[in-house]
Amino acid sequence: MDTRKLTEILRATIDPNQRQQAEEQLSQIHKIIGFAPSLLQVVMLNEVTIPVRQAGVVYLKNLVTSGWLEKEAEDGEPIPFSIHEQDRAMIRDIIVDAIVQAPDIIKVQLCVCLKTIIKHDFPSRWTQIVDKIHIYLQNHEPNSWMGALLCLYQLIKCYEYHTADKRVPLIEAMNLLLPMMYNLIVNLQADQSPESVTIQKQILKCFYGLIKFNLPLGLITKEIFTKWMEVLRSVMEQPVPEHTLQVDEDERMELPWWKCKKWAVHTLYRLFERYGSPVNVRDEYVQFAEWYLTTFTGGILEVLLRVLDQYRNKIYVSPRVLQQTISYIDQCISHAHSWKLLKPHMFAIIKDVLFPLMSYSEADEELWFSDPHEYIRIKFDIFEDFVSPVTAAQTLLISCCKKRKDMLEETMHLCMQVLRNQNGEYGPRQKDGALHMVGTLVDILIKKKFYNEEIDPLLSEFVIPEFHSQLGYMRARACWVLHCFSSIRFKSEMLLVEVVRLTVNAFLNDTELPVKVEAAIAIQMLLTSQNKVHKLLEPQVKAVTTELLNVIRETENDNIANVLQKIVPLYTEQLMPMAYEITDHLATTFSKVIETDSGTDEKAITAMGLLNTMQAVLTVMEDNPEIMLQLESTVLRVVGHILHHNIIEYYEEAMTLLCNLTAKSISKDLWTVLEMLYQVFEKEGFDYFTDMMPVLHNYITVDTNAFLSNENHILAMFNMVKVVLNSDAEDESEIYAAKLLEVIVLQCSGKIDNCLPSFVELVLSRLTRKVKTSELRTMLLQVLIAILYCNPHLLFTILEKLQESVPNASITQHFIKQWIHDTDCFMGLHDRKLCVLGICTLLEMGPQRPNLDEVIPKLLSSCLVLFDGLKRAYEARAEADEDTSSEENDEEEDEEVLSSDDDDVDQMTNEYLENLARMATKNSSQQGVNLTAKIEEYESDDDDESYEPDETAIECYTTPLDEKDCTVDEYIKFKNTLTALSTNEPTLYHALTSVLTEEQRKQLHAVFVLADQRKAQQDSKRIEQSGGKNSCIFILYSKPLLFTPLISRITLNYKGNILILKFPFEGFNTYYFP
């Protein structure tokens, strides 16, 4: 292919006037053999301008990503495009050379291409990449090393998450390349130029990727590992050139010297965390961990303590190096060996490193005044926490004060010394740090009796006064400390009243935005933990809500949206007049956020928080139709924007909002939204079908007549179900699709008979193909059972018509046999109830009933299995209804700290127990003791394979059979059916019951007894509702009354002319007698 012509086309793609035509040309020629290698050649031409080369490499990346792997054609479809093997071979031959030679901006995109190629072709089609990398690393030309290392990094990344047995090709390659990496970095360490250090950094990235999830001990022997540890130590000890101090501090961390140190300490931390703890590592690493802990801990600690000493002496250390160093120290707290080495230095670390880090800094001050919005964003950015030295400092402080003796006492002594400031040696910033440390330790302090007693005085003396500080950051810190201590038991109610007053005042009246944000969070936490605050806040809740809306709009902070989510349900009545204002405010802010969305995670979290807050408003206003009607247009504006612009990351929240809007009634506008949902489904496939399910269920059940009034409604539902079931996706979407059909059948019983043939045909079509899960199979059967229950004669008529196309097997018999065979697979209340009702309907059909000879011996035993499951399900639901939501505060208790000889292990896993047992056995044999006791396998309550759910996930999609006032009782129906059979069809009755064992007969009798009790309960409820006039009921109990000693516990009361009896016995409820 002519590279000059291709260059001109690529140049045209960056010209707005020619772009469309150029892109069409590329679309026409990209499938031609030779196109992809020619494109790569253009990208490699130095005489071509960088923008054109960029356009070419991006197109090549997309082409390789989508077309490298050969795809098979589906039935009736054309063969999908893939790059021809001839072209792939040419690209493989030159891709490494291209990466080595290309400028950095082109290298990045070529590396993405390389990763795709390695993923599909290494090692089966392309082992030469290893040789290519080897040649370039051997080359004495430094300019080739970086490109070769980038290629090696892509090779390592492709095996990053593979288990050890699947990493064999990589390990074989590293047998050749790892020694070269080592020699190269050792030789480079004398050269501290930016180019040399950048290559060293890349070597460390490769080494880190190699050991990140698996440490290949066959490749990295103890001797080799020791050499690499020496390399890491050397990198950490290497001084950073003085001239770097001339660079702006915000940019200094990006310099290669600090990046190299970052990867060195990152690797040290990973090695210790994953492979250096003898009681936590996997079996194959135990010996290594024991050796690592005793061999390297002292030396590494010495190096890292020098890093902290630099920081203590005001010498610059990059934030990431500092954060990883502190994290490494945190790992040392848990191990007795490392703690002994660290202990003499720990308080100095707390005082001279953690304390300054946790104090208000110059950088904080500058950001507070120059950009308070950015200050708030950083302080509340959860992603920032992962790399922040301040967060690492908090974690280390908690670890040492919780796990090691005297650390809490010494830390609190320091904090109180700063707070009291008797000699005037500490300023406000240090006081901020002390309060920061105290708040961080709150969970430890409240469990220590000595400190718990002093919390009220501490708040009164050192926190409350700061609300009147002239310094905004101290007012913000006061709010933050109250947020931390919000869950304590205030001993003084006056103090709690004052806390609430000051916090609300700070939120409403403070002029500095960060203070208002901290105050808002404090209000939320106080409301969550202190019931008395609900009443205290009530007089100002409208003002607080209005201000929350303003702060949400100004900061776009999801934490403030969460505060509003907390307030709205607590003060529903007071906020009803503001419901529209709140929702409109949130909708406007949402529009603003997504319009300015730069694709950041923070923006996405904020937008989701706003949508969730809108949902909270709708939830609490659901029972007020007038308000819901007011809110509807605003919410639909938001939902319409999301769906119309295909903003898929908010689809789930949009569906939740629609679910709220359609929960009680469905307006004309909402019916038009159903059309929009169908269009979304057609466009996006069934990826979001499960998210749509609650809304679709509401459309069917909330206003069934309106749903049936337009045949397009039911057609849209059926088409969606058909697409999902015909996809053979084998995931939960198919189960939900079948459930939707069942809901339509039961909800619209008798009104959609003309649709049922299509339903049956679709379900049978899916059942004839492979069904991997019992959940899907039983759900598909359930659709047929529902049709049987609603219109048995029609079902079997449909099956007979379909039989014509399947002459060799009886569809009806196959359905019935599969159904009865699978009765133990039906779960939850609804599924089992419908199954019982279906069997009863089948038995009641009389002469028109299909032949049951093959299933009669199993029929009643299957029913007993269903009733056994129903009993458990009803008991589980009753227990769930009785559960209270109140939670008692944890008992205060002093937590034990570890002695210097103890290790700390948090997770009681089998792995840990096995390692402990092995170590105990080893140590006992060394002492001449024969240890024979065994630690049995630890069983976790979270992993019970025999667990069966008493209610299934899809039971929330109710039908008329699930309503509380449903008069159809499966127990009563079952007993009545069998009783009628014994009279009307004694032969069938005998065939059903004669095969029962004695135990099964007892179970059947128990079902009958429960049926009588449930009938009596129904009658009693009916009498209660009718006022009891001219009614009389007798309670029959078939077993002897053996509970005479309890007879005195029956209570009798009169209500008008009704006698009320309350029985304390199992199986009885309250009964009403006129």
UniProtKB/TrEMBL annotation:
GO cellular component: a single term: nuclear envelope
InterPro entries given in the database record: ARM-like (IPR011989), ARM-type_fold (IPR016024), Importin-beta_N (IPR001494), TPR_IPO7/11-like (IPR058669)
UniProt KW keywords: Cytoplasm, Nucleus, Protein transport, Transport
Feature: compositional bias, Acidic residues: 880-906
The keyword Cytoplasm is assigned to this record: yes
Molecular function GO labels: small GTPase binding
One GO term of the biological process aspect: protein import into nucleus
PROSITE patterns: IMPORTIN_B_NT (PS50166)
Residue segments, region Disordered: 878-906
Pfam families listed in its UniProt record: IBN_N, TPR_IPO11
Occurrences of domain Importin N-terminal (ranges): 22-101
Cell compartment(s), UniProt: Cytoplasm; Nucleus
Chief place of localization: cytoplasm
Annotated family: Belongs to the importin beta family.
Protein name: (African queen) hypothetical protein
